Amino acid sequence: MAAQAQAPIIIKFSHVVAPDTPKGKGAQRFKELAEQRTGGKVKIELYPNSQLYKDKEEMEALQLGSVQMLAPSLAKFGPLGVKDFEVFDLPFIFKDQAAFRAVTEGPVGADLFKKLEPKGIKGLAYWDNGFHIMSANKPLHNVADFKGLKMRIQSSKVLDAQMRALGAIPQVMAFSELYQALQSGVVDGCEGVPSNFYTQKTYEVQKHTTISNHGHLAYAVIVNKKFWDGLPADIRTTLEGAVKDATTYANAIAATENQVALDKMRASGKTTIYTLTPAESAEWKKALMPVHKEMESRVGKATVEAVYKAAGFVPSK
After folding, report:
1. Helical H runs in 38-106?
2. pLDDT (tens digit, 9 = 90+) per residue, 178-215?
3. Are 212 and 276 in contact (CB under 8 A)?
4. How far apart are CA 245 and CA 124, in angstroms?
5. Rounded distance between C-alpha atoms, residue 185 and residue 123, angstroms
6. What domains can be seen in the chain, in order of their start residue?
7. Are 218 and 100 in contact (CB under 8 A)?
8. Within 10 A of 256 (CB to CB), how many other CB atoms are there?
9. Nearest Cα to Cα of residue 65 among 278, 203, 212, 230
């Protein structure tokens, strides 16, 4: 009698953005590579757009093992008590993509991942998604323009402090609820990357968009540690290789995808896109630099200094 074929190992991979974003495409690439290289021994089930869990729920689901993989933004680790990751939210900390990668691809990135392990989480990779822009229904050129605006943020004490430093009122809200909140005026504006603005269509309900590059968005590809450690060694090694190659792919397309999204937003005529002048950018920096000092005790002085050093950041006196 023929031996019964072994059922594949199922890995549920959940995330909160659209499939046609850099993160969505990176997840799809991982699925293809993992299934192909394991000869079907592993099956990856992708759940984009918060299909399974909303922002706040997904981390708990991973810790409980209801899903095996996630790719949350780095701010999501603060509420778990691993506040060091909020260093990535500090305004203007990365001058360019290379500065960000110097942190994530070096010892600092590896040390931060180790801090997740007591929470039952294993960090596999960092996915880069470029620099933040701002939007609202009024032009945002000067710091004074933010006064009194209700600005959506993801849950992060650093981002809360950032919006308050600009004179805005931060509003924590799930990404999946953002379009409706902007459309109905529950919030006045938000920050994010162009690829997410475009795929979520938020630019359709925001008259003004400012290219400010004040913040940076990145994700961590993470897995339930108990599940990961319990995989056969050969499967785990194969999946590590698939994650590595999917990371190279996702990071390579991020800059292009964001530029294409910006071009499409501009072409739509639904939002006016404005780039800060050097003088305006300097004014934003001056208003936001105190956030670094204010958040040092929360994030951890050693972590902040390690990131400064790796990223080549020199704080203004």
Report:
1. 55-64, 97-104
2. 999 999 999 999 999 999 999 999 999 999 999 999 99
3. yes
4. 12
5. 37
6. 9-311 (3.40.190.170)
7. yes
8. 12
9. 230
